[in-house]
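Appendix B, example 12.
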Amino acid sequence: MNVDIQTLGFRTTDALSQHANQRLRLMIARHGARIRRVLVRLGDLNGPRGGIDKFCRIHVYLVDAPAAVIHDIGVDLYDVIDRAAERAGRAVSRHLDQARTFVRHGRAGGEIEHCEAIAHEAEDSRSKFSTP
């Protein structure tokens, strides 16, 4: 699984990159064969001014389902990464569960369509953030 970590507005440290990589791999490892690429963007909107402005945006590109995109924001970047990675794991599972499988046969055998779909689980209160 290819995990690309990018930072915006500051230089990344080895500890921060390692933390993001480990947390994300832990949460989505069971789906590794169905994940094409993972892009993680970390940033600090206000720079040295502080505040609730550190963000983590995760794009998980899947082989046979739509990409899952997670955005989280907070004061401590390590906590933001933890929350976003946990939500990414749930989102990837949900996207893969909802991917439809169609099996079609010719007219002689009749047409059969088999669709599997799992109902949406409710998003927690942190799931909707507007991007800057």
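The chain has two helices and four strands. The longest helix spans residues 77-98.
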